[in-house]
């Protein structure tokens, strides 16, 4: 894990940049996720909230869930790249760690284009340092709740050709979108913007499998975060793929999706799938 480059969010008179709002008074999902993955780019407020999740689930369960999800993202990216997709829009990317989307996609196709999107400014700070010499990958600060801003962003359009297939990655993202914010409608807006032959890869926490007490305590741990967390039943997660053709084996536990020898933990806290736009 890289160290945080504070210069990338500090005031810069020459470029006119302002100090980013790091929201150090509230935990953020990206920084909590970084903590769960063993990273160092989080604050005490994030560690306290993460400790509450560990207390709700047990530290081993938390570790397994986040790494099962991470392994799914990596396998899905490799599968999509091998299927010929060379454009990736990774929404809610979180902080960088080993095996990032651009690293995996560009192992298969060195010219693959990747746009990372996150609403946490600390992610942008990392992205600037990580991608300084990578001309086919960029990162923007934007919110999944505003698809139009992401799709029209000049940095997005500098790398993504929306007349050609795009892989939209929404991995461990939409359980941070409340029902009132219309997650299905937001997903539809993203998928309406990409052509036939594009894909959606999605994973989501579920109420089908985990103990109800653990779900309730996890949701409570995120109440003070910048985004709450929402577990949903399988049927709701299935509806997120409405109008798309699911890739085999369909909607399954992340470790069951094209399993390999990557050491993915096996839990029942998530569902995941990849689907193609006809």
The percent range for helix content is 25-40%
Approximately how much beta-strand content do the residues carry? 5-15%
Largest sheet: 7 strands, mixed
SS class: alpha/beta
Average pLDDT across residues? 86
The tally of strands reads 7
Helix-strand pattern = HHHEHEHEHHEHEHHEE
Strand order within the widest beta sheet: 3-2-1-4-5-7-6
Low-confidence stretches: 1-21
Number of helices: 10
The shape is globular
Tell me the Rg in angstroms: 18 Å
Cα distance spanning the termini: 38 Å
Verbal overview:
The chain is of the alpha/beta class and 278 residues long. It contains 10 helices and 7 strands. It has a 7-stranded mixed sheet. Helix 8 (183-192) links the parallel strand 4 and strand 5 (199-205). It is globular and about 45 Å long. It starts with 28 loop residues before the first helix and ends with a strand. 45% of the residues are buried.
